[in-house]
Amino acid sequence: MTQEYPSRALERAVDEFSQLPGIGRKTALRLVLHLLTRPEQQVQGFGQVLTTLKTDIRYCQTCHNISDSEVCGICSNPKRDAGTVCVVENVQDVMAIENTMQYRGVYHVLGGVISPMNGIGPSNLQITSLVDRVKAGGINEVILALSPTMEGDTTNFFISKRLADTGVKLSVIARGVAVGNNLEYADEVSLGRSIVDRTPFV
Amino acid sequence: MTQEYPSRALERAVDEFSQLPGIGRKTALRLVLHLLTRPEQQVQGFGQVLTTLKTDIRYCQTCHNISDSEVCGICSNPKRDAGTVCVVENVQDVMAIENTMQYRGVYHVLGGVISPMNGIGPSNLQITSLVDRVKAGGINEVILALSPTMEGDTTNFFISKRLADTGVKLSVIARGVAVGNNLEYADEVSLGRSIVDRTPFV
Lengths: 202, 202
Prior knowledge:
The structure is a homodimer.
Chain A: H1 8-18, H2 25-36, H3 40-51, H4 53-56, E1 58-59, E2 66-67, E3 81-88, H5 91-100, E4 105-109, H6 127-135, E5 141-144, H7 150-163, E6 169-172, H8 188-196
Parallel strand pairs in A: 3-4, 3-5, 5-6
Antiparallel strand pairs in A: 1-2
Helix pairs in contact in A: 1-2
């Protein structure tokens, strides 16, 4: 369908929104027309936040998580166990694990997983800085918490090779059936893993 | 679920995106993290477009469509039939009808339909300016092209009452479009037919 916009300013705004993932031109138009119904100050505020977004947001020098300062709130928290490092793919995963309230260690954000299909190799990820961190000492355990996919497994394997000579304890998050699901709906691979990796009851 | 963002700047950006219709906090976070992977100049450009959005976009003084100038491209086009006015709800509807290539008249954008549930009365819409436009003369026919919903029908009825003493020919788009759907989602063939097959109102 050809879309002829009645205004260049409108078209520019639609162009910008439709470049976001999962947002097509029709949704983008709906978002822009919604913004036009909002007070000018609010829309300007939105614009300001985006204009300064890349300069306002910094990354923790230790764990590479998004941060407001040079060292993030988790790395600088003395109550966290700095001897346990949980390796995750991205910021969302840190937030997901934090929400479980089950983890008191620190993190290392890789920034992705090895994925030759998408042109992402080990050098695009924060793997060398993880190895340096472990070699610097003070770390007892590295927990691999990447997605249980082909890419995640490949990355786990690569990291385990790089850390092999450091002698650090290496573990991977448990794979099994999801809590709350009926067993009959679990996929065969997860169910198989949950039997092989069974743990002592109480 | 509690969401604790690792950075205030990140949270501010997520707040802004999640105020858009149909975008929750999880999607908003995904959009912001996507923006962080883009070059700084692009993200700044996006911010600039939003900052000046409300001042850049103007509305046609005649038909109230979005425009870059005081009179929009359709109203100022001498090839369009200024004696036929198509009354629509919003900008998307103008674009949808333009895309059918079946209409050579001009428009009148109401800015909505009468909807007491949402607190939208006749005074919130460009109805008086439509009546003034018809009374000023030079208009032979007014085509009502509102969504075939309860609110659309109510608005059609209200406009027909207000225009009753002007003697202008009043027609309504054929109900070739499925009743209950919003106009902007109608397919082009049905929408085109509904304009060609317009019938006298009442």
